[in-house]
Amino acid sequence: MAKYSVHQQPVETLLSWIKSGEIAIPEIQRPFVWKASKVRDFIDSLYQGYPVGYIITWRNPDVKLKNGDLSAGKKVLIDGQQRITALTAAIVGQKVLNKNYKEVAIRIAFNPLTEKFEVLNKAKEKSNEWINNINPIVNDEVSITKSIRNYLNANPDADEDLVEDRIENLKRIKNKQVGIIELDHSLDIDTVTEIFIRINQKGVVLSNADFVMSKVAADELNDGNKMRKLVDYFCRLIVDKGFKKHIEDNDKEFSSHRYFGAIKWMAGGKDELYVPNYVDVLRVSFTYKFSRGKFSDLVALLSGRNFELRTYEAEIAESSYKLLSEGLMDFVDKTNYQRFLMLVQSTGLIHNKLISSKNSLNFSYTLYLKLRNEGRSETEVQQFVKRWLIMSLLVGRYSGSSESMIDEDIKQINEKGIEAYLLQMEQTYLGDGFWDFGLVSDLETTSVNNNAYNVYLAAQCNENATAFLSKSMKINSLIEQRGDIHHIFPKKYLTDNGFVQRQYNQIANFVYTEQSTNIKVGKMAPKEYMKKVLEEIDAKRYDISTIDSKPIIEQNLETNDMPNLLYSADYTDYQDFLISRRRMMADKIKNYYKSL
Question: How far separated are the first and last CA of the chain, in Å rounded?
Fold first, then answer.
């Protein structure tokens, strides 16, 4: 049996399929990424009869209904959203969202004398040679006879036969052929993805989450199309608070639905720490409710897949949409969402630049929702989620094939329980070898986007540590203010003594301190500026540091994990300093993790 068919259809037929619902077009509430000039070129290619690429659809499987009948599956658009949008914008006249999320019309002008298309501008609008908008002509809103007559009245010297011929050619755009590849429902997602990549020569990656969103958006029976809006609108409200009014003004049906009631709080909420996109929302909701991690499973379940009998059943599809809806509602719930963010911040992860793995956050939120749903105490929930989050960041749990890891973790937690599985993970990955050698080795790097270093900073924020050589300025304040990190052994001092960038930019040589302190330190050796700091305390004159007593200096150095040799260190001690400080940083991370 053929797994796909390739055929041509006229633009007019394609548009009629869209209007009738024969092809389910996902409602993507995101900007139209094509520039208006690309829409112009697309219309010009149709006019000239040039190939314009393929539209790819994937047919939903026929589903067995409760009465035993089969319901024919719709075609779901997999690729071609931008071309479809271009057609509906230029020919049907529908408005599109621009990059600023404003609804705009794209008007394409046509010059019959030169057979040129242009995006309508003021110059073209004032010129009699240009038809301001091709939409009414191509879309049968105005008769071709009237169009020709109007143009000739405005251009009396034009060749009548030529004008007539070219306006008729313009109208024939809707008869031009578009290639359609229809994929059979029996194809798995990996095969569909491979076909997509091979046909799409730009090498655009199609994620399994895109398949889910297309599947959900095409469903009206189980309110999937509204779930799609729930996801898109929520993600949009996180970054665009004014979008709430847009929903209320332009989407009356959705704004009266319970989904809108669940997300509208975000118009007054704040999230600069997590900022989930549609993939993250789907990931958490699906993994939490279905105890699976692979989106291909979700596509199958939403199709009504019975994995044992290998059939498709309406009841399975219905229950799957219900479960997904419950997961989405729990995800966007104000109390759940805000408490989770507070929990993350309480670990010391106070800024998104300290969180290198979005999937560590995703799985931690999944775990949070799961444990709360099980009725666990708040203390238990917090302890397990905090530890899982930090553990997964430290070991880079989701840095590779994250979907497989998520699938494995949720299934293991279901089977063994969170206590046993977390203990197993700690024994496997966080043994003495990790704390004494692996972590120290991880800290030997120049990358500030290093998991170990970010967790070290979280540990400092967690204990409300003061900045290096500062009496009151907190490290978390400098991180939140996007303050700079500075060199303990100044960069200029080390370069003057023959050290290269890879050496002086070691993260064990980094510290958060106030700008004024960094400037006063200049290019002094540590033993020089530390001697001055101690002299200033004796003289009660505070220039380099704001610290006014020697016990506080000692406490500050301990807080910032400074080896004692700092007092006497010059460039000859630099490598020893790095080795000692890495060990101290690793010890801080270990003690911090154990305290969670």
Answer: 57
